[in-house]
Amino acid sequence: MSAVPIRSRLWRAFHQLGSPPYVYRLAGRLAPWLGTMSCVLLAVGAFWGLVLAPPDYLQGDSFRIIYIHVPSAYLSMGGYVLMAVAAAIGYIWRMKLAHGVAVCVAPLGAWFTALALITGGIWGKPTWGTYWEWGDARLMFELLLLFLFIGYMVLRMSFDERDKADRVSALLAVVGVVNVPIIHYSVEWWTTLHQGPTLIREGGPSITMDMLIPLLIMLAGFSLFFGWLLCKRLQGEILRRESRTRWVRNLAAEAAA
Amino acid sequence: MTPRRQRMVLVALVAAGVILSAGLALRAFQENLLYFFTPTQVAAGEAPDGRAYHLGGMVLPESIQRDPGSLTVNFIVTDYVHTMPVTYSGVLPDLFAEDQGVVARGRPDANGLFVADEILAKHDENYMPPEIAEALAQAEQGEAP
Amino acid sequence: MSEFLAMGGHGPYVWSAYGVTLVVMVYNAWAAYRHQANALARLQQAGAEQETRAKPTVRQIG
């Protein structure tokens, strides 16, 4: 094993990740573990954030929405980057499975973007005094992110051929990724109603430890939850894409028996 | 050049083109992307003339004057360089307070008084329990002469 | 308990935000499992159809 050069071992891993039966089994093995871990983390994080964490000196208890708003927003942007990278790999290396990953991320990313917008709006009412402000750059570009996810899915639907849908939608995914850094820096580049970043900022997080720990637990819980659903969706996507292959037919016959 | 390398270059070019055009577009629409104008920008004449806009800054300490018997409130918005007086009649957000961020929508009258029809509160990215905030405030008072 | 539910007067905001999040996450988990189950069911259906279609051809040859 150690005699094999690292480079060729990495290439083997890359090629294995392009092998549908291997990834199907891998996703099937990971899914229950991710599902259990995410549910435990989400339960602990929600209890910690809602009950154990102190209220904010200024916002009182409404600040507790941070524990679902920030993870949703982070998954919306992280999900988009994942979708764009997968689509780019699929486009460049003609790797169908990578396109499949992008296809599976899109609805999940869209839902978490919607959650970020909805929970942000609900949080805005008791703090800012408004649910929504047209003209706030952070809000506008996050809404644009939702449209990019939906646009990716709608664009795919307009093609009958899957290969063509893969190629064209991949370019849209790559084009849209420029929006992610714009969302992050919007609160610094322009004057906005939305406050600046709390976690990823110069000088470290601007939140005390007793409030930060549940936020980190929720971030981990949301991420594993995303990974769990991605595994299940990817399994379904692989079955659809590989429906004519012998291994999928055998698998279906085994499952029926 | 192999087809794979061609596709790689194409993706890189598309990404570079998008970044460049997004940068130019955002620069061109810079002013439209500003949600509010600070008193300094207003003093420099950068705020739109003749139409309503958002004025943002901090509520100057001890500047809030409530009119007894009505919902009218007067206060001063500052960015610690310039100030602007604001008048507003209506319900204020819970977080509206002295030394806190505020955004007012409206336009200045002939005397330079900003007549607002909506007041929103802007909070910062710091979160802490009440005890810590109190301790910080006390430490600040202790330092002051 | 009622004090906890009131969330210092912000109860409706906090609980509606958490409620929406719970509903969306449960729906997504259900949808992801259905996505795989549907694909499998469709494959089995296609497999069964193929078997029934295959039988007459065997008889024709025979």
Descriptors:
heterotrimer, A: 257 residues, mainly alpha, Four Helix Bundle (Hemerythrin (Met), subunit A), 9 helices, C: 62 residues, rod-shaped
What does the model show?
The complex is a heterotrimer of chains A (257), B (145) and C (62). By secondary structure, chain A is mainly alpha-helical. Chain A contains 9 helices and no strands. Chain A has a single domain (21-256), classed as Four Helix Bundle (Hemerythrin (Met), subunit A) (Up-down Bundle), CATH 1.20.120. Chain B is of the alpha+beta class and 145 residues long. Chain B has 4 helices and 6 strands. In chain B, strands 1-3-4-6-5 form a 5-stranded mixed barrel. The N and C termini of chain C lie far apart (78 Å). With 62 residues, chain C is mainly α. Chains A and B meet through helix 3, helix 6 and helix 7 of A and helix 1, strand 6 and helix 4 of B.
Brief digest:
The complex is a heterotrimer of chains A (257), B (145) and C (62). Chain A is an all-alpha fold and 257 residues long.
Question: Layout of helices and strands, plus pairs?
Answer:
The complex is a heterotrimer of chains A (257), B (145) and C (62).
Chain A: H1 6-16, H2 20-52, H3 66-93, H4 96-127, H5 137-157, H6 162-176, H7 179-189, H8 209-241, H9 246-256
Helix pairs in contact in A: 2-8, 3-4, 3-5, 3-6, 3-8, 4-5, 4-8, 5-6, 5-7
Chain B: H1 3-28, H2 30-33, H3 39-43, E1 53-59, E2 65-66, E3 72-78, E4 83-89, E5 101-108, E6 114-122, H4 130-143
Chain C: H1 2-6, H2 11-61
Low-pLDDT ranges of chain A: none
Under the CATH scheme, which class of chain A?
Mainly Alpha
What name does the CATH topology of chain A carry? Answer: Four Helix Bundle (Hemerythrin (Met), subunit A)
Radius of gyration of CA atoms of chain C, rounded to a whole number = 26 Å
Topology of chain A as a string of helices (H) and strands (E): HHHHHHHHH
Number of domains of chain A: 1
Rg over CA atoms of chain A = 21 Å
Instruction: Write the element-wise H/E pattern of chain C from the N-terminal end onward.
Output: HH
Strand percentage of chain C: under 5%
Shape of chain C: rod-shaped
Structural class call of chain A reads: mainly alpha
Number of helices of chain C: 2
Average per-residue pLDDT of chain A, rounded, comes to: 94
How can the largest sheet of chain A be summarized? Answer: none
Q: What overall geometry of chain A do the principal axes of the alpha carbons give?
A: globular
Measure the end-to-end span of chain A.
39 Å
Please tally the helical runs of chain A, counting DSSP H or I stretches of 4 or more residues.
9
Oligomer: heterotrimer
**Strand elements of chain A, count:** 0
